Amino acid sequence: MERTFLAIKPDGVQRGLVGEIIRRFESKGFTLIGLKFMNVSRELAESHYAVHRERPFFPSLIEFITSGPVVAMVWEGEGVVASARKMIGATKPLSAEPGTIRGDFGVSVGRNIIHGSDAIETAQTEVNLWFKDEDLVSWQPSMTSWLQE
Ligand code: DAT
Ligand code: MG
Fold this sequence. Notes:
4-stranded antiparallel β-sheet; 4 strands; 40% helix; binds 2'-deoxyadenosine-5'-diphosphate
């Protein structure tokens, strides 16, 4: 089954949006299989954002993501990678559509509330970077037959 990695960033946690964000993915019909409330080390932050190493915003991005606790999650479901990206919205919250998380709750690219893997391959890498296999819970929600034919 397809999986994605999502992380509620320090701004989302500080603004009290954890419940609202988890609610959206639960209500949509995706399955939570991993959840960790944690501080992010510089080392983890730099690995996670390695593709952005050369960008001018990299130092402030690392500073920000290590500045307070985050909620790291793995969600499962058919098409979850692309669907979660749609639910999150565009990188710049002012360009993100209303109805998306960034569109509804943010104004600034450096405070855009939540991370979501951008492709199936990236998701696999990020899930493995943030979670050990034994910390993921394989389970079958009892409502499955009411979500899928
Ligand atoms: P996304 O988080 O939508 O996948 P990304 O991978 O391009 O976006 O960038 C990772 C994060 O880096 C993004 O969530 C916020 C920050 N960022 C991206 N572009 C930026 C910019 N032009 N200025 C400041 N921060 C930026
Ligand atoms: Mg990205």
